[in-house]
Specification:
It comes from Maricaulis maris (strain MCS10) (Caulobacter maris). The chain is mainly α and 149 residues long. It has one domain: TerB-like, CATH 1.10.3680.10. The chain is built from 8 helices and no strands. Helix 2 crosses helix 5, helix 3 packs across helix 4 and helix 3 runs antiparallel to helix 6. The longest helix is centred in the middle third of the chain and has 17 residues.
């Protein structure tokens, strides 16, 4: 009986903590990358939508919901550990490197290279267990993708 009550409260707590959803956690990091320079441009938000749809394969309704939660969490976040911990636990090494590339896509979407966005991604890399070499290659790939558009 106590196990059933404990399971009930555990599931209720998970519903109250959207950052435990790996899509929301990753989205929050993407929004934080966009916010790092103090400006959340529409092109950055569009880039995040494209990532949620393309890379994560989410439906339009799910994208809207995840993006709304990610934006709310990014605005109130005091650190990145609770998001990176979820992402690190749920994604493989290659997927985490892809996420770093996606962070670069968002940071560079407005056409400006901000030192604040750069510093944010340099801080996030080690928290995702992505080394400097892979982070730099991810940036190079993101820049190349943006040039071909």
């Amino acid at each position: 009986m106590f196990e059933a009550i404990r399971n009930f409260f555990a599931s209720a707590e998970a519903d109250l903590r959207p950052e435990t959803d790996p899509h929301v956690a990753a989205c929050t990091l993407l929004v934080e990358a966009a916010l790092a320079d103090g400006i959340y441009a529409d092109c950055e938000q569009d880039q995040i939508r494209d990532i949620l749809t393309g890379a994560f394969g989410l439906s339009d309704a799910r994208v809207a919901h995840v993006l709304e939660q990610g934006e709310e969490l990014a605005e109130s976040a005091v650190d990145h550990h609770r998001f990176t911990k979820v992402v690190k636990a749920c994604l493989s090494r290659q997927e985490r490197i892809a996420l770093v590339e996606q962070l670069w896509l968002v940071a560079l979407a407005d056409g400006e290279k901000s030192p604040f966005e750069d510093a944010f991604i340099r801080r996030i890399g080690p928290l995702l267990a992505v080394d400097d070499r892979d982070r730099i290659f991810a940036r190079t790939r993101a820049e190349a993708r943006l040039r071909t558009r």
